[in-house]
Design brief:
79% helix; mainly alpha; rod-shaped
């Protein structure tokens, strides 16, 4: 049987995780930037 190296669901899950983490970083950076300028 041919087995794929990774399951599509695993890939989507890690992609979701990456997007959420980068969004968190982006939001916290924006908060820091606005607070530091004010």
């Amino acid at each position: 049987m041919y087995k794929p190296i990774f399951k599509l669901s695993d890939f989507l899950y890690s992609f979701d995780y990456f997007c959420i983490e980068s969004l968190k970083i982006w939001f916290s950076f924006n908060k820091y930037a606005t607070y530091s300028t004010v």
